[in-house]
Amino acid sequence: MDAQDRGQAGEFDSADQWVLNPRTGTYELRLDRSSEQSASSRPRGAGGGAPRPDAQDTGGPRNNATQNGSARTSSSQAEAQAEARAEAGPGPAPGAAEGVAAVSRPDLPAQRSRRARDAADAAIAAGRRKRRPGKPGRRRALLWTGGMLALLIAGGSVGSYLVYQHLSGNIDTIDIGGAGSGGFKKDRAVNVLVIGTDKRTGSGNESYGDKDSVGHAETTILFHVSKDRTNATALSIPRDMITDIPDCVTRTPDGTRVIAGTAETRFNQSLGQLDRDPGCTMRTVTKITGLTVDHFMMADFNAVKTLTTALDGVEVCLAKDVDDPSSRLRLTAGDHKLQGEQALAFVRTRKSFGNRSDLDRIQTQQQFLGSMIRKMKSGDTLTSPGKLWKLAEAATEALTVDTGIGTIERLRDLGAEMAKVDPKHITFATVPVVDSEDGATVLLNKAEAEPLFAMMRSDTSLSEVKHQEAFARSERKRLLRGPRADPADVRVDVYNGGGPQGAAQETLAWLRNDKDVPRSANRGNAPAGVPRTTLEYAPDQADQARALADMMGLPAAALKRMAKDRAGHRPMSLTLGPDFKEAGVSVGGPAEVPDGVQRMGADKRVCAK
Fold first, then answer.
1. Which of 411, 419, 416 is nearest to 172 (CA)?
2. Claim: this prediction has a pTM higher than 0.70
3. Tens digits of residue pLDDT in 445-500
4. Domain assignment present for 601
5. Under 8 Å between Cβ of 456 and 180
6. 336-341 own/partner pairs: CB under 8 Å, 24+ apart
7. 451 and 563 in one domain?
8. 541 is in which domain, residue-wise?
9. Based on the domain organization, do 261 and 380 belong to the same domain?
10. Which of 343, 392, 402, 590 could form a disulfide with 154 if both were Cys (CB 3.0 to 4.6 A apart)?
11. Are residues 329 and 277 in the same domain?
């Protein structure tokens, strides 16, 4: 394991390794002579067999002797030991006295053909390739949190083929019938919907009431990771928010069917009710936010218990004493480390903090999850192979995902993308809502929600926006201060530099027909792609630029003033970039987070009160 190179392997001995004996074709466990470890003490979940020597190809550990820079046993020594075993004949393997425990098991390979031995030798040689330098934690895929919790995958540190097979076997999958984007891409923003259900599966959970629940979307977080992986937003969606649930396609053993949508329905009924699957919840979230969801991850009550136990507890802070019979949470004011049943009680309590509403419970869960992220990212976790293995085992057993990420390899790749974000740039936020007339449900606050959704769509960092707000306000005032030209006087050439196909023609039609800008022209594809939409204008076209920026919803950063000697008498140039969605939709998110949006940094320690 990687930690062995740094002397941080804990209970694992860097001399203990499975090696292939070229004479016999069998795998043997090579032990440090001072160790009394036996084959039965291998990490749980290895599928009953030995890790293959080609684990390097799947991100797993290499031969430890190669890692340490010098082989503990030379080929000549291996041959001598093999000859000693041959001369000894039947009986205990003499290698046991020399620090080698020979293993005879039906699930380990016996005599192998020459072709198999050649393949094994090639795999061993491949495993000796030089390791690339890098930060220790980056090789371990990390992070998915939300709702009742979700996932942690420890990729590189426990990544042999047999371990991958074992962990993949833990994962349950659902075919979501074409919902979502079809799969995340490394060069695009990533949206993962994490769903915590109220399904009472697992030992002891039936006693929490409603034991026959089909599993609704009780706690839902849309985890949005920016394209450049510099920031992420974890957006909580209130379960009692009234919304429209669209039609959705579901796959069942009896075939494919369409479940009709319902208007003005509680959001949590997008899952479970009428046999709706997580694909229906994904479609509902897209309808609300305008963000296409790539994948979902779903967990029940057991996830929070098993993951917090694998982490040896998650630290929380309480501003007051709590005694809640409903959730069974009983804690004194101050700091606590919670795991198992106590951790579940903390994220379930609704009568202990704030106004005892579901919105206050969301804030408590966000505080808990922020602490859990910090614990997962800590060196104490990342350098402990034992903890990483327990976390991977617990997470995959508690997890249900869509078929697009239904293998440990795909989860590892997704985790590697998400783990690139520093916790200080992960921000928890909640969809803005207002109370409804019945007092039991809430309604979407469109005035505050739409700017927040636009910021997420444009990858705007909510963690840094506070520092940017004052600058953005002054920039917009400076650039957009002044008179506006009449639409009939606006002259602009429209280019497509990375927007959707046909965007330039669509924009031209919209400008002419909806905004009365007759002096606009479609110039087709731009000479080169642009990272974001830009409007170039000459100094004497500033009034035209302001007018077009107002029409298009362009941020100040999109305006580029050309040098006077370059402008001539040309029209302005509007180049549509990847941030352009469609004509009439503002380009880029607003510079300021609406005042009513609740947010909290994942790196902040907050006491529940």
1. 411
2. no
3. 988 898 899 888 888 888 765 445 444 555 455 566 788 999 999 999 999 999 99
4. no
5. no
6. 337/312, 337/313, 338/308, 338/313, 338/314, 339/305, 339/308, 339/309, 339/311, 339/312, 339/313, 339/314, 340/305, 340/308, 340/309, 341/204, 341/305
7. no
8. 469-576
9. yes
10. 392
11. yes
